[in-house]
Amino acid sequence: MTLSDVAREAGVSLATASRAINGSANRTVRADLRDRVLAAAAKLRYTPDANAQAMARGRTTSLGLVVHDIADPYFSSIAAGVTRAADRAGLQVTLASTQHDPSREAGLVDLLKRQRARAIVIAGGRLDDPSTTDELRDALADYKAVGGSAALIGQPVLGVDSVVVANAQGAADLARALHERGYRKFAILAGPEGHLTARERREAFVAALAELGTEVPDDAVVTSAFTHEGGEDAMRALLRSGPLPDVVWAVNDVMALGALAAARDVGVEVPRDVALAGFDDISTLRDVVPPLTTVRIPLVDIGIAATELALAEPSDEPRLTHVPTQVVLRDSTPQR
């Protein structure tokens, strides 16, 4: 059966039948006509076309989620929160991954715009790269101009509603907690040089230690990719550079797990030979030996919060939802 058959059965025009079943962004149908069309559709067992409904309404029932790497437990936990909130709103999630290439984000936003996604959530750190940031900001502005809405998890630099994690506070609290446990010689696996979240965490950690009279030497700060492999590479470089510090802090947990693997490869035992800490409290830490000290971010909750922001009524100014962090001390950093 086609929509024309339904219109004929109901005694209305094809346009009226389409508006009654698929909805319309601009025009409504009288209640009595809509009831006739729906009754005819039920009698003929007509199933509406989802694409036709999207064209009529100006949007689909999909919500776009853009992440850097779905295999990373950080992003998969956020995705769990996004899908939970989207399901409550009657939406399905369309997932897109940049494969750690931020220059792809603007193109993915444009693709979701052309697919008429109702809203977009973007999760991932920003780089100190004005050209990439400006391109993504423009893509989001174009998407909002045609009725879309968006929310960001991360640094609030894109002119959209954002969920902002207390990275600096968490890093400073961790530095103080490790100092209180007796650690004085620190090394940092600092992530990429231009990564804003990594920089914010590193600077806050170093500043908190400086307030306590402990300096982190420049040669004890090792930059690398914000990934498991990056953590391995940075830890190997640190192990080759000279005597071990008291504790190594990686600016995210995935890097910390890479550092743990690199240490084990050369017979360095955590925490007997060197203590180790991370940041994020990703779900896979429950399987790590020794249990890893970290800073907990409620990752599922921030996915939910970002989705709710993206689906909220539009606001004249970008809204910010601030999320606190919590230091979690575990066996990888015992009292000295």
From TrEMBL:
SUPFAM superfamilies: lambda repressor-like DNA-binding domains, Periplasmic binding protein-like I. The keyword ATP-binding does not apply. Signal peptide: none annotated. Pfam families: LacI, Peripla_BP_1. GO terms for molecular function: DNA-binding transcription factor activity; transcription cis-regulatory region binding. Keywords: DNA-binding, Transcription, Transcription regulation. Residues 1-57 form the HTH lacI-type domain. Gene3D superfamilies: 3.40.50.2300, lambda repressor-like DNA-binding domains. It comes from the Bacteria. This is LacI family transcriptional regulator. It comes from Cellulomonas biazotea. The gene is lacI_1.
